């Protein structure tokens, strides 16, 4: 079985976000894979987007940790919209936890969700604002998003 086509999902995601996402939105990557997606989105979307990364280990412990450290203060002072960038949406629990922690820390700006691919099976009421595509893989399959050259991305089985 071959991995889903991440670049096709990416091109669809770009088409859906162009003209819809705010030109000054923060692109907040969920973990290293989300950060990779956020960087690729920032390079292609019109506007001046700042990128930051949400630490997933800290999130699992109920702690909001964003890199660079100055990003949260900037998000609070600028009040620009935030787009959570997540490679694959599956159960949705980490997305809900991330939004909850951002709100607890005073973020009042609109928060949207951009996912490269939606696996379906959300256990919480969450849906992406922007989605590159739906993918079907076996329940026990783990997909990772990895860089493929300077500007490409691809899924690989973990």
Explain what this protein looks like in three dimensions.
The strands form 2 sheets. Strands 3-2-1-4-5-6 form a 6-stranded mixed beta sheet. It is built from 5 helices and 8 strands; from the N terminus they run H-E-H-E-H-E-H-E-H-E-E-E-E. It is globular and about 45 Å long. The longest helix is centred in the N-terminal third of the chain and has 14 residues, at 31-44. Strand 1, helix 2 and strand 2 form a beta-alpha-beta unit. It is α/β, with parallel strands linked by helices and 158 residues long.
List strands and helices in order, with pairings:
Elements (H helix, E strand, L loop, with lengths): L5 H12 L8 E5 H14 L5 E5 L1 H5 L5 E2 L3 H8 L3 E8 L3 H12 L6 E8 L11 E2 L11 E6 L3 E6 L1
Parallel strand pairs: 1-2, 1-4, 4-5, 5-6
Antiparallel strand pairs: 2-3, 7-8
**Got a strand count?**
8
Could you give the order of strands across the largest sheet?
3-2-1-4-5-6
| Largest β sheet strand count, sense and barrel closure | 6 strands, mixed
Radius of gyration (Å): 15 Å
Give me the secondary-structure category: alpha/beta
Poorly predicted residue ranges: none
Q: What's the end-to-end separation, in Å?
A: 13 Å
How many helices? The count is: 5
Write the element-wise H/E pattern from the N-terminal end onward. HEHEHEHEHEEEE
> What would the principal axes of the Cα set say about the shape?
globular
Share of helix among residues?
Answer: 25-40%
User: Whole-number average pLDDT?
Assistant: 95
Strand-residue proportion? 25-35%
């Amino acid at each position: 079985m071959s991995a889903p086509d991440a670049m096709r999902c990416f091109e669809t995601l770009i088409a859906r976000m162009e003209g819809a996402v705010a030109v000054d939105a923060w692109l907040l990557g969920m973990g290293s894979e989300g950060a990779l997606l956020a960087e690729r989105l920032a390079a292609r979307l019109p506007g001046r987007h700042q990128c930051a990364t949400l630490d997933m280990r800290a999130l699992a412990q109920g702690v909001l940790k964003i890199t660079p450290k100055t990003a949260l203060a900037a998000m609070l002072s600028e009040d620009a919209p935030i787009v959570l960038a997540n490679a694959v949406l599956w159960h949705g629990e980490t997305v809900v936890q991330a939004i909850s922690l951002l709100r607890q820390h005073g973020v009042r700006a609109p928060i949207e969700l951009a996912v490269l691919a939606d696996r379906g099976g959300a256990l919480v009421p969450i849906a992406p604002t922007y989605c590159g595509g739906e993918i079907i893989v076996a329940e026990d399959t783990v997909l990772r998003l990895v860089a493929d050259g300077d500007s490409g991305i691809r899924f690989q089985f973990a």
